[in-house]
Amino acid sequence: MVASHLLAHPNRFVAQDRMLTDTVRWGTVDSTSLRLMGQIGYDELIEAAASSGYVAPDLGGIWATAPYLHNGSVPTLWHLLHAEDRPERFWIGGHALDYEFVGIAGEIDEAGTYVYPDGYEPWSRPFLYDTREPGRSNQGHEFMTSSEAGKRALLEYMKVK
Fold first, then answer.
1. Is the distance from CB of 74 to CB of 86 less than 8 angstroms?
2. pLDDT tens for each residue of 106-128
3. Where are the domains of the chain?
4. pTM for this one?
5. Are strands 97-98 and 103-104 parallel, antiparallel or unpaired?
6. Which of 39, 63, 77, 133 has the maximum number of C-beta atoms within 10 A of its C-beta?
7. What is the DSSP annotation of 26-43?
8. Are 66 and 37 in contact (CB under 8 A)?
9. Which DSSP helix (H) or strand (E) runs through 103?
10. Which among 39, 52, 45 is positioned nearest to 13, based on CA atoms?
11. Contact call for residues 68 and 141 (beta carbons, < 8 A)
């Protein structure tokens, strides 16, 4: 029998140079922001530190946590797995879930914006997320490539995770 043990889960640190995502968010964590987090009590809930990357969260229940990536810049898990099709702009807030693509339900309009499906009325005030703004880039995690069948299987798995 082969013995194994988990080295680091769910709090595995991933360096920025591996993910290639937007650096603005982690770059703003410095001694001042860490001190302020402590003053308002967040240091009792999280362990924050200045670093050059991110600690990815556990993926349990990911189907209900759209939008995705560390800065919320990808509307569905399908878009996460298809980097070339990630929309530059999309609506968040009061959104319906898409159970096929796993994330925010929508479609691309004539302006290239991912909008809610025709006739859908958001249940709260939506916000237009623009990935061209500083700190909101939807780049990165493009190393997560697989065959199309593998991507479909991963999406199906994430629906029940």
1. yes
2. 999 999 999 999 999 999 999 99
3. 7-58, 60-161
4. 0.76
5. antiparallel
6. 77
7. HHT--HHHHHHHHHTTGG
8. no
9. strand 103-104
10. 52
11. no
